[in-house]
Design brief:
Elements: H1 5-12, H2 16-23, H3 31-43, H4 50-56, E1 62-67, H5 73-88, E2 92-97, H6 102-111, E3 119-122, H7 129-133, E4 140-144, E5 154-157, H8 160-173, E6 179-184, H9 192-207, E7 212-215, H10 221-232, E8 240-243, H11 246-258, E9 268-272, E10 286-290, H12 292-307, E11 317-319, E12 322-325
Length: about 350
């Protein structure tokens, strides 16, 4: 058994209430008294009973994080940042995978109360704003991703249109005139694909360049490889490709190199998400790097505000930052290949 408040109070020669005030950070404790209590806390290696504290506050100290695919590197990396940010609040995180299933997303959206969690950070793919507005579970909620804008809950994302426009402008700035987009979806229920396609089209229109768009079913390496093969087999190949995420770009890279073409010599290639794999591919992958740490911190802070009862304010739309990371797949670097 660990030391109790009473044990600390006896050692410090003060009341249990005074020890409680010091542990909870109350300011109105005399400096000398605070010093005695802190010394006793240290000597006894006191650890606060967070479970008891949460129960007194009507909370569990646990939140849920619901994501579409836990084996997708972007979501795996984002999960780590959410867990780190939650730990600063002394929260534990339960992680749920939805697979983008409408049924599963509905279950999570309306069933988190049964799991006795204080709040939910949710990246939906299938549900829409109307279903969110009809939600009966009043557990605190923050949304990630691009599915629902201006909805009835706080929402955190990067500016996908601007990010896609920036990376396309980078490719055009290299002198490439046949810039393809890889990642559109014929029946996209997620907001990501149309937003990134819009940014790509804005950049091409500004320079009077034609568009070439390759569609995919999912955002996986195999989908990128197959879509790139279709682009190469459709006549004049592109001289640059913007893939809507890094997994698609890594699949496309494999197809390009297997076809005897060079990256970036014949085709400049860029992605979006800045997953770790792209920093170690050959060549390394140019990409847009969302600030995942900032996304997580903002989401956790918004959730904390809701949990603490600041629910009177209107839902917020918050944009996190991003950076264009120029790497070898669009730049020769200091050692150009022979003949260039």
């Amino acid at each position: 058994m660990g030391a109790s408040l009473r044990d600390v109070a006896v050692l410090a020669g003060v009341s249990v209430k005074t020890v409680s005030n010091v542990v909870n950070g109350y300011a109105h404790v005399a400096p000398a008294t605070r010093a005695k209590v802190e010394e006793a806390l240290s000597r006894l290696d006191y650890r606060p009973n967070l479970s008891a504290r949460n129960l007194r506050q009507g909370r569990t100290g646990v939140i849920a994080l619901a994501l579409p695919e836990l084996d997708a590197p972007y979501f795996a990396e984002l999960s780590r940042f959410v867990i780190d940010a939650a730990a600063e609040q002394r929260w534990l995180v339960i992680i749920e995978q939805t697979d983008g299933s409408l049924e599963r997303e509905r279950q999570i959206l309306d069933g988190v109360r049964d799991h006795r969690v204080d709040g939910l950070i949710f990246s939906p793919i299938a549900i829409g704003a109307d279903e969110l507005a009809a939600r009966t579970d009043d557990t605190a909620l923050v949304l990630l991703g691009e599915r629902i804008h201006d909805g009835p809950a706080d929402h955190v994302a990067i500016d996908n249109i601007r990010a896609a426009r920036d990376v396309t402008e980078h490719l055009i700035g290299l002198g490439r005139t046949r810039v393809a987009a890889l990642g559109a979806q014929d029946s996209s229920i997620s907001g990501t694909a149309p937003l990134r396609l819009a940014g790509y089209r804005e950049a091409l229109a500004a320079h009077g360049l034609p568009e070439t768009v390759a569609t995919v079913e999912r955002y996986r390496r195999a989908d990128g490889a197959a879509a790139m093969a279709a682009l190469l087999g459709a006549g004049t190949p592109p001289d640059a490709v913007f893939c809507f995420n890094d997994l698609l770009a890594l699949g496309a890279l494999r197809t390009i190199l297997s076809s005897g073409l060079r990256v970036p010599g014949d085709i400049a290639l860029a992605g979006l998400d800045d997953i770790e794999d792209g920093r170690y591919s050959t060549p390394t992958l140019t990409t847009v790097a969302p600030d995942k740490s900032e996304l997580a911190r903002i989401a956790v802070d918004l959730l904390r505000q809701r949990i603490e009862g600041r629910s009177g304010r209107a839902p917020q739309e918050v944009r996190a930052g991003y950076r264009l990371m120029v790497r070898e797949s669009t730049s020769w670097g200091p050692c150009p290949p022979a003949g260039r």
